[in-house]
Every structure is written in C-alpha cells, then in structure tokens.
Design goal:
Elements lengths: L1 H29 L6 H26 L1 H6 L5 H28 L2 H8 L2 H12 L6 H25 L6 H20 L1 H6 L2 H25 L8 H26 L4 H6 L3 H12 L7 H24 L1
C-alpha cells in the first residue's frame, strides 16, 4: 500500500514538472503577443484561486463524505497559508514569469535546475534533513544532465542570448519555492490539496492585485489573438491549477529534496517538444543528458530509501 502511494506521488510530481516544462515556450510565446509578464501573473493567480474554490465547492456538494473527513484548518493555520502563498506563488510566480518575459526560455530552463540545490539547503535548515554524499551526487548528476540538455538545444537552434536580470529573477523564484518546500511541508501535510491551494491562491491574489491590476486594465483585449488567449489559458489552468494540484499531492508524501529533483523533467520536456515541432535535434548528447537526469532522480530516491 505504501509503495502504491509513493508511486502515485512520484507520478503526480512528474506530471507537474512536465506541464511546467511546457510553460516556458508557450508562456513566452503569449508574452510576445500583447500579454506582459505581470498580466500573466494576475491571470495565473486569480484564475487558479477561482478554480480551486470551484473545486472545493464541487467536493462539498458531490463528495460530502470526503469533505466531512477533512480537518478544518484553525485561524492560525489559515494565516500560515498566507506565508506559504507568498513564497510558493507570489514571489515564485512574479519572479519567474517576469524573468521569463525578458530572458530566453532556454536560460529560464537552465536556471530552474538550481531548485534541488536550494531545496537541499532548505530541507537541512527547516526539516533537519541529513545531507548525504549520495544526495549530493544525485543532485550533481541531474544538474549536469539538465545543463547538457538545454545548452545542447541552445547550440542546435542558435538561440538568442538571455538577459542577466531575467536570469536573476528566475533564480530568485527557485530560491523562494525551495523555502516553501522546506518551511511549509508540515502545514501542507495536515490538509488535503484543495484546502491548501484555495487558501494559498486566495491570499496570493490579494497580494498581487496592487502590482498587476493597472496593467491588466490597459490590455487591448480586442487586439489579442485567439491563439494567444489559448496559450494564456494553458498557462493558467494547466501550468497553475493542474500543476499545483499535482505538486501539492506529491509534497504531502515526498521529501522536498525528491520533489525538487523532478525539476529536471522541465528542460527534458521542453527539448522533446522542440524535437516534435522540428525546432530541435535529438542526438547522442541529448540522450546522454536524459540518462544523467534519470540517474540523478534515482540516486536521490535511493539515498532517501536507505536512510528511512
């Protein structure tokens, strides 16, 4: 039973990482056709908040037994969701989305591979997770593979250079999310996914509103193409609602270090999509990179199993 639960958790975080891997090229495309980075942040946070409250209502109406079985968070925990939302959503999404809008998707993918490093430090500080040589080795393998993959893709496609400010913003987003993984794991583990996410996104919506509403009001809505709206919808409902739902489900079971390791799936997904679209080349270097990424995830998981 425990193995089955762990497998589902791994599948959830893999799915979330794969969806996030698609967001860089799709989101970048939308943000070059009339939607700014801050506009996209508002759409993501507000759209997800509404989606999770609808999901909560559906659960209450159609699954009353499941709803009754869930503990109701006291006021102090509801306030903690505000802190969790700040690190996991406000800071993470503002920095990454705005950073992506001014740098290249390739650079954003490279920077995203730094999450396991920050998560390892965060787990050591907040959860007293022991840093073993095998965990360091696993992170090193995964980081090497991800860098090989995205750098090889950039060379093959003659991608334009990124922007240092955008790269730093993307790096900050990874650090913020790592703090969330370590600092709020115990809080997230106490409640079901929908309860956690609806409160986190609700608080986050109020936090980002002052920064984003002015820009949203100035969007030339009639001039935005249907394709751009479809790309934005994917970012909001796929990359935010579905992905965060899957991520939170996995976070309840897996250690932050393991959750962060699946971040290496993002550049893998981006490269596979590029190949399918005919804008990337899959060769020996790409195959070697994917092998290193898989080996990194496997090594960290083995390290966790040997310590339990």
């Amino acid at each position: 039973m425990k193995n089955s639960t762990n497998l589902k958790a791994h599948l959830c975080i893999f799915g979330a990482a794969a969806i996030w891997g698609l967001m860089a090229p799709i989101g970048k495309e939308a943000m070059t056709h009339g939607i700014t980075g801050l506009d996209m942040v508002f759409f993501r946070v507000a759209g997800a908040a509404i989606s999770f409250w609808i999901a909560s209502l559906v659960q209450k109406v159609f699954f009353p037994a499941l709803e009754a079985a869930q503990p109701k968070p006291p006021k102090k925990d509801i306030l903690k969701f505000a802190g969790a939302g700040f690190f996991a959503i406000v800071c993470n999404q503002c920095c990454f989305t705005v950073g992506l809008s001014i740098t290249s998707p390739i650079n954003a993918s490279i920077v995203a591979t730094s999450l396991p490093i920050f998560a390892l430090i965060s787990s050591a500080v907040f959860l007293r997770e022991r840093i073993t040589l095998m965990k360091v080795l696993g992170i090193g393998l995964g980081l090497s593979g991800a860098l090989m993959l995205v750098l090889g893709s950039a060379t093959a496609n003659n991608a334009k250079a990124g922007n240092i400010l955008g790269d730093l913003l993307c790096m900050t987003s990874q650090c913020s999310f790592a703090i969330y993984l370590g600092l709020f794991k115990n809080l997230i583990s106490k409640y079901n996914v929908i309860t956690c996410m609806k409160w986190m996104f609700t608080f986050s919506a109020f936090m980002v509103a002052p920064l984003t509403l002015g820009g949203v009001a100035e969007i030339p809505f009639p001039e935005i193409s249907a394709i751009t709206w479809a790309e934005s919808a994917f970012v909001v409902f796929g990359g935010t609602f579905i992905a965060y739902l899957l991520m939170a489900r996995a976070q309840k079971i897996l250690q932050p270090t393991v959750v962060a390791m699946y971040n290496y799936v993002q550049p893998t997904t981006s490269t596979v999509v590029s190949v399918l679209m005919g804008i990337g080349i899959f060769g020996l270097s790409q195959a070697a990179a994917i092998a290193l990424i898989i080996a990194g995830v496997y090594t960290v998981n083995r390290a966790k199993a040997s310590n339990s």
